[in-house]
Input
Amino acid sequence: MVDMSKVKLRIENIVASVDLFAQLDLEKVLDICPNSKYNPEEFPGIICRFDDPKVALLIFSSGKLVVTGAKSVQDIERAVAKLVQKLKGIGVKFKRAPQIDIQNMVFSGDIGREFNLDNVALTLPNCEYEPEQFPGVIYRVKEPRAVILLFSSGKIVCSGAKSEADAWEAVRKLLRELEKYGLMEEEEEEL
Amino acid sequence: RLRKWQSRLRVSDAAERNLAFALSELDRITAQLKLPKHVEEEAARLYREAVRKGLIRGRSIESVIAACVYAACRLLKVPRTLDEISDIARVEKKEIGRSYRFIARNLNLTPKKLFVKPTDYVNKFADELGLSEKVRRRAIEILEEAYRRGLTSGKSPAGLVAAALYIASLLEGEKRTQREVAEVARVTEVTVRNRYKELVEKLGIKVPIT
DNA sequence: GCTTTAAAAAGTAAAAT
DNA sequence: ATTTTACTTTAAAAAGC
Output
């Protein structure tokens, strides 16, 4: 059994796509978004930031959104509700309730022990390690689909998961592989 | 019927033209870097394999060729930095790095096959710095001890080798400046200084006052 | 493929002091 | 020479080039 007792995961960012089911006139939307940026030449959506909840929204004329920077699904729901209220204020009509899809969750975490990444890279199948270009080992988990960056400190970053449960499952699979190849015991000597 | 035939001819024409361009690009790079023939042949083999597996899609021929050269150097243990290659390739380093990791993943070039011993970099940099065998041995001892002490994981191999050579040059009385060592290793002086500080501190090395 | 957005890890680079 | 700021890697969506 894989010992996950020392493993920690902390949510750092959630990305969601949203459909408001309404057409938007971006020029009018600009008025209700204080700190926003809109340059259709470089990007087709309005870039808008909320302080509470602290998120960034990309607003498109199709009525679809991308919400990023959230630390919880509730943050996203609150941000969408907040935007919907503002839009109602300028007369936008919605055909139905907004649909929110969590697309990506990013976690930072800790496995609780240090690693010799050269050993990991030489032993763990299907991983990448190019210290000249990036200090961490890149490990791709097929199911659930996620990518884990493993650093020598034992700290990790897990991205691509669509739920917290998936992220934990992906990390569990990495640990199972590390154990399978004897990379979890070799009590790295001294210090 | 004739149309299909012509389109096939056109396709193979384009494929041939692309291959010819890729191989001329490869020739230009290997000639300028004075790389041995077997490296050029290996790079060409990797490139054909990449084309066969359709790995070029969405990537420029230049970046893939440069990536193949770098991969061939790593496979054949001919130490060369990615910077040296990106200097003459007309693609930015970041793009070459991406193509390199992509073909490595898809051609089963594992970290093990691509691993180049720090010793090989020590000799390459020492050659360019005109350092003696004694300094090289000393640098390698420092690197081995650093590895045992877990001071190398995640760090730039070039930066570590540069710092080890800098320290060894001081210890053996053949001093080279941080600037000179940084230049051949293609890292900044700040990186050499950071690695130098950590190695001297954690390995308890007493360097002569300069 | 690219463009834009957010966030962490740890390392290196570039720029500022 | 040291500090600050910025960029490298991972993931994913949006509309359009």
